[in-house]
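Thought: the user wants the 3D structure for the chain below. I'll pass the sequence to the structure tool as-is, report back what it returns, then summarize two notable features.
Action: structure_tool
Action Input:
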Amino acid sequence: MTVALAGFMASGKTTFGRAAAAQLGWAFIDLDERIAATYGTPAEIFATQGEDRFREIETALLECVLQAAGPTVLALGGGTVLREENLRQIKEHATLVWLDTDFNIILSELGNTERPLLQNRTPAQIRALYDARRPLYAAAADITFPITSTDYSQVISDLSILLQTLESNHV
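Observation:
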């Protein structure tokens, strides 16, 4: 069983996903980390080959990682579910959980970032991108997991409970 975590940049997909998977003894895969291990960081790929090439790489690796055996948490990139082909693959092989993280939390987590889609953007421009993506995440999600607190230990605990429940219902 694979649970894919979707959400905006800095919504906690990697941080919370890795911690919840560790608590439950599940495997954890970060799609962007897999891309970086083989092709270079997303920022490098965007800079040297462009976003279209990055999305092609992302789609190809997504297909591979969705074949993971056993309980797995998969942290997707912020834009992964925006590509129809990716969303089809995810829906076929995983339960999609949207980490609906409050914008102010995201903004505080972004800090000095090398995220290619945020280069030279103001907080207002980042907010506009966040607002544009929220309905797309909502439409794609099987489950919405709101994050409105910076009590990260509680978020991880709640996410672990959700994952455990999904596994129990999957069997």
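Final Answer: Structure generated. The chain has one domain: 2-155. Residues 2-155 form a domain with the Rossmann fold fold (CATH 3.40.50.300).
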